[in-house]
Amino acid sequence: MTTVSSAEHTRRDFLYIATGAVAAVGGAAVAVPLIAQMNPDASTIAAGAPIDVDLAPIAEGQIIKVFWRSKPIFISHRSKKEIDAAKNVQLSTLPDPEPDSARVKAGHEQWLVVVGICTHLGCIPLAKQGEYEGWFCPCHGSAYDTAGRIRKGPAPKNLLLPPYKFVSDTKVQIG
Fold it and tell me: How far apart are alpha carbons 75 and 58 in whole angstroms?
């Protein structure tokens, strides 16, 4: 009878090691796509990513519309007259009192950045319309001033402010 020493490798040892290696590779092959599918897709990441807007080509008195997270964002380059009109409003006359200085960034008072959705029912107001020269929602008659504050109509709140910061004098980052 032949005996095999435990120090020698047998065919059975090879099969155990080979089976274990194939199982490890197969487990990794299953785990990688399973974990990868839990990450958000590219459109979701892009929808929530901050956007940079170059302010240099925007003329004084002009309002542009950009999109961030599928929402329209109005960026208004306000004139001195519009800034003064916004600052000279008695806060007690506003349905949602908020000073102009709280709606703009210090040192950049000429730039107003607001979410372009009416706070009444979600319509998109028209720029430079209405009796306050700001925004007017034709759906239900809400009128906003040059600071995006509700002045008249059924809207309960001012136009919302998105999170934004100035990365330079001519560039703003929204988000």
Answer: 9
The per-residue pLDDT for 11 is 85
Nearest-angstrom CA–CA distance, 25 and 7: 28
**For the residues of 51-79, what is the DSSP string, one character each?**
EEEE-TTPPTT-EEEEEETTEEEEEEE--
Task: Give the 3-state secondary structure of residue 67.
Answer: strand
If one counts every other C-beta atom within 10 angstroms of the C-beta of residue 75, the result is: 20
Among the listed residues 9, 77, 108, 140, the single catalytic one is: 140
- What's the token pair of residue 85? 């009109």
Query: In the chain, what is the greatest distance between 2 CA atoms, to the nearest angstrom?
Result: 109
Angle at 131 between CA 128 and CA 133, to 5 degrees: 30
Is residue 74 a contact partner of residue 64, using CB atoms and an 8 Å limit?
yes
- pLDDT at residue number 168: 92
Catalytic residue list contains 140: yes
- Mean pLDDT per 10-residue interval, the chain, length 175 residues: 65 89 92 85 72 94 92 95 92 92 93 94 89 90 93 93 93 92
Report the candidate in 107, 92, 78, 100 with the shortest Cα–Cα distance to residue 161: 100
How many residues appear in the chain?
A: 175
